[in-house]
TrEMBL record:
Helicase C-terminal domain boundaries: 210-361
Organism lineage string: Bacteria, Bacillati, Bacillota, Bacilli, Lactobacillales
Any single GO BP term: DNA replication
Superkingdom of origin organism: Bacteria
Domain Helicase ATP-binding: 24-192
Annotated source species: Secundilactobacillus odoratitofui DSM 19909 = JCM 15043
Residues annotated as domain HRDC: 508-587
UniProt-listed PROSITE patterns: HELICASE_ATP_BIND_1, HELICASE_CTER, HRDC
Protein name: DNA helicase RecQ
UniProt xrefs under Gene3D superfamilies: HRDC domain (1.10.150.80), P-loop containing nucleotide triphosphate hydrolases (3.40.50.300), Winged helix-like DNA-binding domain superfamily/Winged helix DNA-binding domain (1.10.10.10)
Cofactor(s) required, per the database record: Mg(2+); Zn(2+)
Transmembrane segments: none
Catalytic activity: Couples ATP hydrolysis with the unwinding of duplex DNA by translocating in the 3'-5' direction
EC number: 5.6.2.4
Alphabetically ordered keywords of this record: ATP-binding, DNA damage, DNA recombination, DNA repair, DNA-binding, Helicase, Hydrolase, Isomerase, Metal-binding, Nucleotide-binding, Zinc
Amino acid sequence: MTPLEILKTQFGYDSFRTGQAEVIDDIMQQKGVLAIMPTGGGKSLCYQIPALLQDGITLVVSPLISLMKDQVDALNENGIPATFINSSLDYQAINDRFNQAAAKAVKLLYVSPERLDSDYLARLEQLPISLVAIDEAHCISQWGHDFRPSYLNLTNAIEQLPSQPTIVALTATATPKVAQDIMSRLDIEQEVKTGFSRPNLAFKVVKDQDNDKFLVDYLKENPDQSGIVYASTRKEVERLTKLLQRKHVSATMYHGGLNQEERRQNQEDFLYDRTPVMVATNAFGMGIDKSNVRFVIHAQVPGSLESYYQEAGRAGRDGLPSEAILLFRLSDVQIQHFLIDQSERDEANKQREYDKLQAMSQYANTQECLQKYILNYFGEDGEACGQCSNCLDDREAIDITVDVQKVLSCVIRMNQRFGKNLVAQVLTGSNVARVKQLHFDELSTYGIMKQASQKSVAELIDFLTAAGYLFADGGQYPVLRVTELGGEVLHGNQQVFRKVAIRATKALPVNSELFEALRSLRREFAEKQQVPPFVIFSDKTLRDMCSVMPVDEDEMLTVKGIGANKMAKYGTAFLQVIDLFRDEAES
């Protein structure tokens, strides 16, 4: 069979997404390849289809147990033999699964990087491994946002495999520097990069609002929609969860302080659609292959754009319209500063984290297209998306040139050697001791913005930094410098305009009665099979059923995401539900 035939018969899709065919072709030619595709871009199929075309076993290195289980469940539902080996299994179960692999009873074997030790390697060396797929490959790079030392052992482990397998590395978030590092460490020459754009995601930044009220209002406007709310600390996760539950929003939580059973139960409640809202730290999400997440809200600022984009990208994996919302407060940036300060990283790594946090803050303060800003950060050009909060903000911009000149002039008079907070204190005429000790109360710019609060001036400085009029130089305590563009403003050759804060967003569309009936049937099958509902069918597949309204098996097989195996298992039951709604519509 050809890759396209397997795509249709096993997975129920008529055509490949951008980049998939190219990656598969490289693998089939035994060329090592790095695949950089956005979350929901179909990275898994890039190695699952070659696994079915090759004689040997595909070894998948995956960082989290939950990812392994979800993907193995999904493969088995499609009639593809797969299994995993990790710390959740006892010795006998691990031995049985190795024996299955040795007998060629499975095509894909999932393991965690931490398990590639001498004991595992001795067993793996006996298997006919033809392909090694390394998921979340950015973890191998010291420049990545989620560097993991255990990934450094991958190269040595792969070199010890006598079969000399082909390597495919996959990630959704890699700057050019990270991509180069991955390819160098794994000795990969090919790169397939499909772009970081997520056209179905509407990005929004919400500022200067009561975040709790915004969150509660948004969730009540979007009942029964599945979504994730991220917070930076365990304490905040617990506070928000209790707040939502008091407001009669069905929510659960996930963080590292919960015991293993609590985490497992809460995660399953979310995956199985029993509880639509998950409030969590960044300990939750990597490897959660839940396709029908309609929104991701960051209630606190994450530490980097890489982390933000990866977490936000968990919304809309099925390609349907979804939202990624950042609730921004300056105090949350200070929390991230504290987390970096308290980390055990060396100074060079801390410096990189401070720089990443600065870029995150600039994202929250830019007035250009939010998606375009993210694309530029990852080294990619892009057009305005037309749907983010900045693109949709059609209010008239205010000329703030005079205030900007005051800020820039103050930075220069302070010899471009100090940071945002001290500059704001000088401009607002603060009487703090340090201002007087440095004699900044004698400057002509001292107090020239005393009618404004220090907070609003600090936010203006953030905006000017994001827009390129100022440059924040340094790590933990960055100092402000005036850029060439800022110089043009100071000399009266450039005007600066700014809009006011972005307001709340509209609710997502309400599902149809047929869609809800299909969801209910999907939930019944999921409970019987003990798998998450999206493993049965994704939301996108259910919506396509509503659109196609198939009358028989042939038409059902035209629905995206339905192959022969799933048609045989579930097709008749879903056709019956569709027939009921068709009869009611015709009567």
